Amino acid sequence: MIDRRTFIAATAATAAAPGVAAPLRSGGAFPEGFLWGAATAAHQVEGNNVNSDCWALEHVTPTVFAEPSGDAANSFQLWPTDLDLVRNMGLNSYRFSLEWARIEPEPGAFSTAMLDHYKAMIEGCRARGLTPMVTFNHFTTPRWFAARGGWTAADSPQLFARYCERAARHLAGSIGYATTLNEPNLAGLLQEVLPPTIGPRLVAVDKAMSEAAARKFDVPLFYAGNGLYAPDPAVVRRNLLAGHAAGRAAIKAVRGDLPVGVSLAMLDEQAAPGGERLRDAARERLYAPWLRAARGDEFVGVQNYERNVWGPAGKLPAPAGAVRNYAGNEVYAGSLAGTVRYAHSVAGVPVIVTEHGVGTDDDRVRAALIPAALAELRKAMAGGVPVKGYVHWSLVDNFEWVFGYKPKFGLHSLDRTTFKRTPKPSVSVYSAIARRNAV
Amino acid sequence: MIDRRTFIAATAATAAAPGVAAPLRSGGAFPEGFLWGAATAAHQVEGNNVNSDCWALEHVTPTVFAEPSGDAANSFQLWPTDLDLVRNMGLNSYRFSLEWARIEPEPGAFSTAMLDHYKAMIEGCRARGLTPMVTFNHFTTPRWFAARGGWTAADSPQLFARYCERAARHLAGSIGYATTLNEPNLAGLLQEVLPPTIGPRLVAVDKAMSEAAARKFDVPLFYAGNGLYAPDPAVVRRNLLAGHAAGRAAIKAVRGDLPVGVSLAMLDEQAAPGGERLRDAARERLYAPWLRAARGDEFVGVQNYERNVWGPAGKLPAPAGAVRNYAGNEVYAGSLAGTVRYAHSVAGVPVIVTEHGVGTDDDRVRAALIPAALAELRKAMAGGVPVKGYVHWSLVDNFEWVFGYKPKFGLHSLDRTTFKRTPKPSVSVYSAIARRNAV
């Protein structure tokens, strides 16, 4: 149970490979109709997601969560405010997720009221000229699903597909782009990519937390949607791959012309001289199976925050003087373009950047990163990579999983008592690019 | 776990005592500022109250519930529609309840977002010229509260008071009238008043359901807010009486001038010649301790649906030709006035009729009952009983506890798929009385 993005970040290289960082230059229009968005995810902003696996784990002893999610940004009630923020930034898209735990609060019992809630959000996007990008499942699963083993259960793909089918029947008509799962590619592999300084401890706490939840709910295994510890990672990966395929088929059966994809967590894996073998191995282990699975999709969602630079003996440290994010890792503007290039080379389908951003208390880092990363992205596009949109993570500071509210990824800050959102200076930077449709 | 109102109804007399039913006459103004309202309760209309004791019990095996509450009337989202209905009827008050399970989702963890939700409802009442009557707890308690023994736990009054204090701090400023508990007077006594034809079976299922929930959540006792089976009824009653006192003190400490009371479930206990002893015994057993407890309050809430007529050997049957409600019991218009007279005679404080109505598929019964009962109520008032308001149960057909959605108490019908509310003909009858402030 951990933020995969942050764990990947924790493993990032700490030195640049020579020649990798192309000089950034400004200017350049994006294609007409390019999607400019901001993203959230249900559990991270809605608040009071009491029927989810994650809420349950936040409240067992021991827990690996720094703090509980609580009210989050109260977006379950304040979603019209969120949509107004997106519109007022001059963006034309909003990425958010449906909460499975709300829509199917008990096995096979679907809530029309909650489907209506998400329908209102989707129509609220349309009313504001925003294309809704809807993630059907962003990590959290219903507590009952986790209590029967979650994604370790043999029938988990079918249960996910049943949920997708019901949600699609109610909602698909107005969705712009759908993704089945968020960052499923790292499930079961987090143990491998954790740095040795913190990995064993966190995996141990995660395992103890999962066991405490199993006792609390009197079940053999309580396995949450984004568990860090996995009894058998290969089983989880197999079921998630099958879940994507079955969920996609269920959605397409309802509305065949709706573009459906999957969003993958990807670092820009780079090779310093002699590091090609390790780089390729990392790509194959972490991304390639999912990118190949995406070949049948209308697009692949790429979510990138950092890079890894591989030397012959392993990851290299960041260059001296590198700008750092909240976790101490390098902020590298070219990583997005590099990742998008690689993703497209394997998947062979158009790319949507469904997440990109930086966790930092210093918004100047974000304000500098956005134009620099977009300039590089445009170069990749000029080089032939079809990219349909860019969605910044996140609209507002939110609940960053095991790290609680400390990491700040938001374009807006959040007052956790009044729920007031305040734009950071980077909003005007990103807004100007989106309005001009050019960087 | 049962609808106390309905169980009381199930025990109602089936024959009238001579001379009890005074002839009804029309006409007569009510005092200026008289409160005309309609009532709901959170679990019965909000929907998806997944963190409550009741939801948990609806989903264990065995369960005594005919069906789960599910989306109910989706009033958690559609409360503005509900308030509009009340206003459009020409009423000046709305009675609803706060959901403890939402406001305190984990022990000691209070949700500002959910308090904001109820604050918006209270302010929504004021914006429509409606005086908000707020029940702090209408039967359902948080699942965590039930899982630690509910009202059997020695510290339950203090836990309730802590919740009342936090809710009052956020909400008390705009509340018109507050009640601590809904119908606590019957807790632990339902076993006694159940008719022998159904009582033992329901109590047995209720007990088995409670035990199944205890196993599911791995606790010694799962005791819900309106449990039918009680390990020790005297303990539950003692804690509820202490809970009312502590909750009231907590609310008054926040806002001393806010009227605070408790709503009691009361039948009009009548005596045929020779039945006085049994009538008095029933009154003492079921109501008197709570009416005496209400002596320190600003008002007592009376909730009446039917009467009992006692003969020397027990309850008498209803008179031949009596109009019957959905449960087959007599509909008797004079019962409200009789109950109000008795309640005031013991409590010595003003009365608010916080519930009155009839469960029936035939709205003509409701349309006839309302003016007839109000004419009798006005006579009681003319005789010196201070009554400050009348609140009809219910605004809309809803989840009637163990009986599910079958009993229809609403002034409006409910489409359970679209959540559309449609006024029944009785709306115009009640509305005309409220607008004229005269019956």
What features would you describe in this structure?
Chains A, B: Pfam families: Glyco_hydro_1. Chains A, B: One of its GO terms (cellular component) is cytosol. Chains A, B: GO terms for molecular function: beta-glucosidase activity. The structure is a homodimer of 439-residue chains. Chain A has helices spanning 4-10, 42-45, 53-58, 75-88, 100-103, 112-127, 143-147, 156-171, 190-193, 199-216, 233-254, 276-286, 288-293, 335-347, 363-382, 426-436, and strands at residues 35-39, 93-97, 131-137, 177-182, 260-265, 268-271, 300-304, 307-311, 314-315, 351-356, 387-393, 412-414, 421-423. Chain A has 439 residues and is an alpha/beta fold. The first copy, chain A, has one domain: TIM Barrel (Alpha-Beta Barrel), CATH 3.20.20.80. In chain A, helix 15 links the parallel strand 10 and strand 11. In chain A, helix 8 (156-171) packs parallel to helix 11 (233-254), helix 14 (335-347) packs parallel to helix 15 and helix 15 runs parallel beside helix 16 (426-436). Chain A is globular, with a radius of gyration of 20 Å. The interface between A and B is medium-sized, with 27 and 27 residues.
